[in-house]
Amino acid sequence: MLEMEQLSAVYVPALSLLLVVLVVLLYVRRKRSLQNEMPCPIYQRIVQHQPTENATQVLIAGGAGFLGRHIVKQLIERKGCDVHVFDIELPLEDLRDPLVASYIKGDIRQMSHVQEALTGIDTVFHTAGVFSHNVNVTDKLMWDVNVTGTETIVKVCQEKSIRKLIFTSTCIVTMGKDDAIAEGWDEKHPYPREPVNGYVKSKIAAEAIVLAANSVTPSGEGLATCVMRPGGMFGIGDNMLADMALQGRDNYYIGDGTARFDLVHVNAVAYGHICAANHLSPVNDKIPIAAGKVYNLTAGKPVMYKEFFGGLCDGPKSFWGHAKPKSIPVWLASALATINEVTYRSLGIILFAKSFTRLSVEMTQRSYWFNNERAMQDLGYTPLLKWRDHIDLLVQDYSFSCSTAPRLRRRSVPCLSSPHISSRGSIADHRGAT
Asked: What tens digit of pLDDT does each residue of 57-83 get?
């Protein structure tokens, strides 16, 4: 009898603790499931100033995101248009730009939200989307947002006789699962039989929807559409490449680091989108040159993975201002990424970064860069600066922002477009109607 009491004293607390742990894990998994479902927000419009007379009304879907913020900033610098930001999450009040006409909280998957947001709009930049390299993103969510959401935006653009739609895709839509190298591919390269993943598959489908909707006539009637395919974007606020390098986080590269890939500063990609909008208006009663076309917005030249992170620098420090990165074996990175994915799927816990997946590891071992001649010839697009010059300016801006506003470093999310880049005339030279 005494033995039973002793066993009870041991096992009852242990079983109770196990039950508590199971309840917590079930709660975490349920919370993760709700996050994956990305519940629809309540529609909200925050008007900061009334429409300007005779100004073009421009809306950026995904305008609070990395690329969207830079498009917003450059449009405001250009003047001549009222800018409206439409996103599922809005910036905190102290980070909102007072020159933005309105901030609209809504979901591109909801027809009523899109109809409200696009009322009175002339031009739409559709940069909203769900990225794939995160452990907490499902193929279903990507399809719902990237395809169904795009279809909704296109339908509303047609219903409301909106003039222009510029859609953001990705250069890797032409890469297949078995393509280890993509060197200098242009926009004519065919889609693969088997896309890299669900994200690429969703972008391929969305591109088809946008291009099929192009109906502009020489007189300017109908909807003019085009597709932008950026390379790998970097800049302050990217939460990956530049942010990690500037802060000295995850200071390593995978494998020997000799794979080459296409990196372009986000300012250049934003500039390319605006150039495309400018070339969706008929000239001399001719179909706009950009209408119905696809454009690669890339650097046009590849850079080695190791070189970008400063692994080839002389001395103990890289040009990012931290110790030179070290190499970790591919097998170790793949094993850790697998553990990260399995732990999240089973327990709802992210051990490392949410973007640290087997696919993201595998992509660092591929060499891929894309030809940008069509965008340069048709649109007047330019990568602005060499990648190394961009980095030098990023380091300067980051050091300045940290010395004047230390809280920005902790949050690592503000849009701090380089004043040096925007003052070079590349934006000011393209004023006029969007």
From this structure: 999 999 999 999 999 999 999 888 999
